Amino acid sequence: MASATPMSGGGSAPEVKNEPKDGAQVKVEPSGIQKLIQEKAAAQAQTSYKQPARRRGNVVRPSQLTGTLDALKSRIEVDKYDVEAWETLLGQLKPPSGAGRQADIRGRASSDTLRQVYRDFLEVFPTSSAGWRGILELESSEGEQQRVNEGFGQSLLRIKSLDLWRVYIKHVRATNRSDTPDGSNAIKQAYEFTLDHLGTDINSGPLWMEYLFFLQNSNAGVLFGESAAGNEESAKLVAIRRAFQRAVTIPTHSLEALWREYDKFENGVNRQLAKQIINDLQGQYSTSRTIYRELKKKWEGIKGGALATPPGKSHGQYKQQKLWISLIAFERSNPLKLEKESLGVRVELVYNQCLLCLYHFPEIWYEYATWHASAGDKERASEVFKRATEALPSCTILSFAAADFEAAQDKIEEAKKIYEDLLVRVADLEPQTQGQVWIQYMRFLRRTEGASSSRKLFLRARKSEGHSHHIYSTSALLEWQNGKDMKVAKNIFELGLKSFLKETEYVLDYAGFLVSQGDISNARILYERALTVAQGEGARTIWNEFLKFEYQCGDLQSTLALEKRRKEALEELDDVDPDELLKRPGYSIGLLLLRYSVNGMLPCSEKTLGHLQAVKVDEAFYGLPKLASEPESPRTEQPREVIKTEGGQPSNTLPSALSNLLDKLPPRNRLNGPLPSAAEVDSVLQVISSLDFKLLREEEGIPSGGGGASKRKREGVREDRVRDVYRMRQMERARRGR
């Protein structure tokens, strides 16, 4: 990889940093958009009289323009990820295509403000190749060479987009003379630098064509002047052949065209040697052509230029994610059977291109980093984790994974820095998120540096603003699990009660710890303390858990007394008349379910569960597990479909024998085994319906029903074909001679 990007003047720009910070732009100035709105309107007002006369309906009034842009600005202030508003705004503000600096009526101040709008845009969408292209073209049109070079340094290695890199090549060609050794070499290096990074893109065919055209039309003495005297043309041919041979082994949309040009080139150099050279490469070309067809299908539907918005912010994001994941998996499977280094280039590119669109998806970042780690490139994995935490600063899970990765490499200080940086980033977030960071950091220090460091961090966490109760319970359990120090653990829990006695979850954590240590009396005291301050649903939960505790650890008298207290307290809490509660079906038995349930197992049969659900026992009221069984509803007679007959009167009821059979069958919800599918039932019925029982009876000499048949015939009743399964089996056995 080149360490410097070839730039203007035959030299090189300031070094392109391997991993510049994402979105490293000037901070948004709130007045930037408003300035441009005013200037655009003023410019429109000043120049409207200079325009040719037009119909009144086509005139864009300054007030109308201001109103439109102001509305777009308001939309962006409400939702900074409003893609449509941003695209419309930039479309309104950009100068007309092809307008030079002198043609831009807005002047220098307008360019400065437009530059600020682009920076605002890139602050929100740092991976937008269109945004980077726009600001770089603006800087170039203004002659701001330093800013152009800085912009390329910030964006190129992060934005692996052919559109942006073509702007880079265009800039290098515009600022270097191809008829000088330094200039031609700068252009050649720019092409090679670009192809090293994007040459495996499926759309890179035209770029390869452009590079080959440049080589073929270059002056060998100028471009290859460093070669030994008289060998310049030979060096030129070698460079062209090498470029062709790389291009025709890469699956691109231009693969066949490149192959034809290569064949033409070799035959033009030496027809006698061309056949052998072409044949040697034919196998790789054929493989690339085969893989291209598969790769093309993988790319179908992928929107490579989509702006990166957080999950759920734009339509079709998850479909795009599936397409990208499928493409990445295909590339990682190494269908071209490449060497490790070449495979890495391809996979690296597709991950980078995926992140241009799915920049806010943490799972993509994590998979990208772990792919590098699995390939043995720990340094690159660390760089990706760093980029990920910069891209998603409030995504704690990525920072935790990054810290663990560094710790696994024995880089404890780097891991600690990740946690410290994360604490700063989440300082304004909700207490629970802050608590998660403190907890993971304490656990990390306990593992890597011991109890002393973990305790010091706990003291810091206690003094921090906005921490949650979780840090107390975690610290207490760490002390007990690692040091078996009951006294210290209990002291920490008690310390937390000073601030979090009203937190139901914390009280239950502490009570569970006391019960696990056999400290029943203090657990009972804790429940009583919590009930003095508990309110609302928290009070209901405490009462239910307290009652469960007494069921497990108390005697019958204390349990019955607590049941009575709970009943009175909840009646008051719900403001319900006790007489009204008695009218609720299942009210009394719900308490029995709570009393006798064990570890989620309810003290009744499946049949009783169905009944209890039918009478609507309130699981939430008693803190019970969900009564999942379907109730057994009584069978009711439903109007039956009228059966069409060929003769006689239609009937609304089934024959009594069949009706009796259905009544004896268990309800559908009682069936534990697999149910046959509708297709399977239909296939069985079709087989049965296709049997000709009359012909079977005649062949086997089976009577057709005796006198009963004659009677039915006399009365005009149709004799349906036999549908009885038992008879079918008997007839089949008779036919087989069994």
Automatic annotation (TrEMBL):
Any one Pfam family match given in the protein's UniProt record, by short name: Suf
Q: Which GO terms describe its cellular component?
A: nucleus
Recorded hits in PROSITE patterns, A to Z, give: TPR (PS50005)
Q: What is one process in the GO biological process aspect for this record?
A: mRNA 3'-end processing
Region spans: Disordered: 1-62, 626-655, 699-738
Q: Where is the Suppressor of forked domain?
A: 71-608
Q: Which InterPro entries match?
A: HAT (IPR003107), Rna14-like (IPR045243), Suf (IPR008847), TPR-like_helical_dom_sf (IPR011990), TPR_rpt (IPR019734)
Look up keyword Lipid metabolism and say if it applies.
Answer: no
Give its localization: Nucleus
Comp. bias (Basic and acidic residues)? 632-644, 716-738
Name of protein? Suf domain-containing protein
Its domain of life? Eukaryota
Stretches forming TPR repeats: 362-395
Instruction: Note the Gene3D superfamilies from the entry.
Output: 1.25.40.1040
Q: What is its main location?
A: nucleus
Q: Which UniProt keywords apply?
A: Coiled coil, Nucleus, Repeat, TPR repeat
A molecular function (GO) held by this record is: mRNA binding
Q: What residue ranges carry the coiled-coil annotation?
A: 398-425
